[in-house]
Input
Amino acid sequence: MQEGVTVNTNSITGTLKYITGWTAFSGDVEEQSGNYIALHTESEDGATITVQVIGGDHPAATLDDDGISICRIKNTSQKIQFVATKEGRGTAVKTLSLSGLTLEDS
Output
């Protein structure tokens, strides 16, 4: 699905392979093919974390306890935004550029 993916301070680099017919990602046929990225995110203080592809087709989603998100990436002008919220401690936002990714064609 991906090769050499590295999360840096403000960006993500690497290569996303083109996947076809991935019915486990979505029941929507239009979303079953494309470039996908899998990321693991965690918070040391147990904050609730949401992830959203800025410029994508879906609203922010709250991560499960496993902290794994899989996002469908349509182009490298999109960004991935993580928001960690902890009651009584506030909110932290991290937005990562995807301009360093290579999206393989079908």
Summary: The mean pLDDT is 96. The longest strand covers residues 90-103. The chain has one domain: 2-103.
